[in-house]
Each structure stands twice: as C-alpha cells, then as structure tokens.
Write a structure and sequence with these properties.
heterodimer, A: about 130 residues, four-stranded antiparallel sheet, 2 helices
Chain lengths: ~130, ~200
C-alpha cells in the first residue's frame, strides 16, 4: 500500500480530461444557444417596434395626404430603411340610424412589414 | 495542461464575445424603448393641442456659443399628461451634449411670463426626454410641402416630422406627428375616431 501511493504521481487521467472537455463543451453550447435566442428575440422586438412606429407615422401622414381612391400607395422596403408600407383607400358603405347611406365615407388601410414582422391599421375617413 | 489552457481561452473568448453581443442588444433595446416612449409623449402632445395652441420652431444661441433648436407648442393645456402643468408654452429643446450628440429636453414657460421670466425658463435644466440624438431636424408639412423654417405666428401645420439618428439604433429616426386641424381651416380628410393602430391584419 505504501509503495503504491509513493509510486503514483498527482494529475488527471485521460478519461477525466475527456469528461471535463465534454462538460465544458456542453456548457459553451448552452450559453451560445441562449445568447443566440436572446439576440434573435431582440431583433424581432426591434422589428416589431419599427413596424408599429412606421405605421403610426404613415397613419399621421395619410390623414393629411391620403392615397388616391383605388390606387394603392406602396413604399418599398429598400427606400424606407427596410420597412415596406402599403396604403389603400377604398369607398366604405355604411348607413346612419335612418338607414340612409353616409356619403364620402372611405376606409384607409395601412400595412407595414419588416422581415417576417407585420402590422396594420385601418380607419374610416370622411373624405368626399 | 496546454489543452486545458487552450480550452479555457476558447471558453473565455466565447463567453466574452457573447456578453459583448448581449450588452449591445440590451443597449439597442433600451434605446428603442426610450424612443418609443418619447414618440408616445410627442404624439400625445400634438394630438392634445387645444384649438388656440400654436406650433413654432426657433433656433437660439445658448451660453457657450452653440445653437439650440426649440420646438415651441404655445398655449397648451396640460403637458405630458399632467394637468398640473396647465397653460404656458411647452418647449422641446435639442440641448447639446459633450459627446457631440443632443438631448431633447422638455422645458415649460409659464403663462403670462415676461421676457426675463421666459428667458430664465429657457435656460433651466428641464426634463431630458431623448438623449444621444444626432442631427435632430424638425420639419413642418403645410399645403403639400415640408418646411424647414416655421417661425412664431405661422399657421398650424398639418404634420410635424422629426428626423435624426439615435446612438445605439442602427436605423435613422423618421417620425411623423399629426396635428389636429382647426375647425374651418380643414381642407383634407378627417379621421374618425382618433387614429389608433390595431395589431395584426
């Protein structure tokens, strides 16, 4: 017993090193995956916000300068910092309490798209 | 031992770059949220502009020799959702910062202020709303044109646009705010009800 312990030198066996390597690799892959999903989530959140902000701005713009009826106005993503915008103005049929058609009523629809995120808004305009 | 050292180095490099990327992403998210909150405040300020409210832009020299763009919303009622701040003029000044960017700062000139009091209010510290904006530019939509100058006394614009770059956000800012028209001066379409985007299509 004494002779065995004297002859053995301190250190790691190859098996121990392999186990340690495997544990390290698992930890690294886990961290990388977690960070990647967090970054992807951040990018999607930014796109969503970008979509909504652009939608609000275009909605404001259309109230002052609406598109022509029946002619969609499209702003391509390349010309608008990656946000595609489509605005349409169509006649809208609605009746008042007496059952008469309300004249000049139109429906404005705005759609925005960034990557795979999209948003839309529609409002009625009294636009004779 | 050398294998372990290499392994440790690679783990350190991966973790370090991951932490750096996370920090960048978090800063970007923070900037986006701050911008979102600012745009919400500004949208509310314009939508709640009373009939007698005015909009103007002035460029003033400030101590230190620099200039400061000031968006003035005159004769407002209740600013930033606080009725206690009733009356007076709301000022959104683009204050210069030491790092070359600017901070859009909210100031208030109380109603019936003389020139001295108004001057004091304009050099006050104010409430910083949007820091680290570069080259902020206000433009005003009137009769189909975007105007860069909008002196006091001009008729109420149809739209107000803010452009600029925000540190930490890759895309430039371009926000358009709707200014409700005065009854009788309205030449374009009217929304009913107040614009409120709905999610999803």
């Amino acid at each position: 017993m004494t002779s065995n312990s004297k002859g053995r030198r301190g250190g790691f066996t190859l098996f121990e090193i392999m186990i340690a390597l495997a544990v390290f690799m698992l930890a690294v892959v886990g961290i990388a995956k977690a960070i990647d999903s967090a970054l992807q989530g951040g990018i999607e959140a930014r796109r969503r916000t970008q979509c909504r902000q652009q939608l609000e701005s275009r909605l404001a713009y259309c109230l002052a300068d609406p598109p022509q009826t029946g002619q969609p106005r499209v702003i391509e993503a390349n010309d608008n910092h990656g946000v595609r915008v489509e605005e349409t103005l169509e006649p809208y049929a609605a009746q008042n309490a007496k059952g008469q058609e309300i004249p000049g009523l139109k429906k404005l629809v705005i759609k925005t798209k960034v990557g795979n995120q999209s948003d839309s808004a529609d409002i009625l305009l009294n636009h004779p | 031992m050398s294998i372990l050292a290499l392994l440790s180095l690679s783990v350190y490099a991966i973790v370090n770059s991951s932490i750096g990327a996370s920090r960048t992403a978090m800063e970007e998210q923070l900037g986006t949220r701050r911008l979102d909150a600012f745009l919400s405040v500004m949208r509310d300020a314009f939508l709640n502009l009373p009939p007698q409210g005015t909009v103007a832009l002035e460029i003033a020299k400030i101590p230190g020799g620099e200039t400061e763009q000031r968006l003035l919303l005159g004769k407002v009622q209740g600013i930033l959702g606080m009725q206690s701040l009733a009356g007076g003029t709301a000022v959104f000044a683009a204050r210069p910062r030491s790092d070359g960017t600017r901070t859009i700062t909210f100031l208030r000139i109380p109603p019936n202020s003389d020139d001295r009091k108004a001057g004091e209010a304009l050099v006050a510290t104010g409430i910083p709303l949007l820091p680290k904006i570069r080259k902020p530019r206000w433009t005003f939509f009137q009769n189909g044109n975007w105007l860069e100058e909008y002196p006091t006394g001009s008729p109420r614009p149809q739209l107000v646009r803010l452009e600029g770059d925000l540190d930490g956000i890759p895309d430039p800012i371009q926000a358009i705010f709707y200014v409700p028209p005065l009854a009788g001066s309205q030449s374009q379409g009217t929304a009913s009800p107040t614009p409120s985007p709905s999610p999803g299509s």
